[in-house]
Specification:
The protein contains 7 helices and 2 strands; from the N terminus they run ααααββααα. By secondary structure, it is mainly α. The chain has a two-stranded antiparallel ribbon. α1 runs antiparallel to α6 and α6 packs antiparallel against α7. The radius of gyration is 17 Å and the shape is globular.
Length: about 170
Amino acid sequence: FYTSVIASISIGILKWLILSALVYLLGVKLLGSDASFGATSSVLAFVFVPEILFIFMPVMFPTEPYLSQAWQFMLIPISWPLALYYITHLWSLFILVLAIEKMLDVTRGKAFGTAMLVAIPYFITNYLILNPILGTPGFRIEFTSISSQMILFISSIALSVAAFLGAFKKE
């Protein structure tokens, strides 16, 4: 139990540093802001606050095998652990957009575009490299070879949204 807690905290810190580096490189440097890496990383620490809810998942869902029976909502599978996963990650995205907006002093649309631009390498680094290599404990999503086409499709949509919202333009 303690090993998985320490591993989860270590992986969370690594994910925070990766997100901070990506926002610093793709947000601060690309948009020409004068924010430092320390200021960027301290603000982005709040993005991971919703993931604290994952600590309570075994307590909230002690009969997990019965809860994992997913039902379909359009094309998205839903179960209680997945619903918690979706809610916390959307909450984190909202916090990320607000953090970028305030830190870089840009409009909310441009902040959302910058968040989409940062999300592509973060998603690939986190879910396709870190999780399989480190064997992240707890709830995780694994991708098959078929879903790599979907990942490329979603990445191209996120890149298009980022370009449309002006994430590449300096003010």
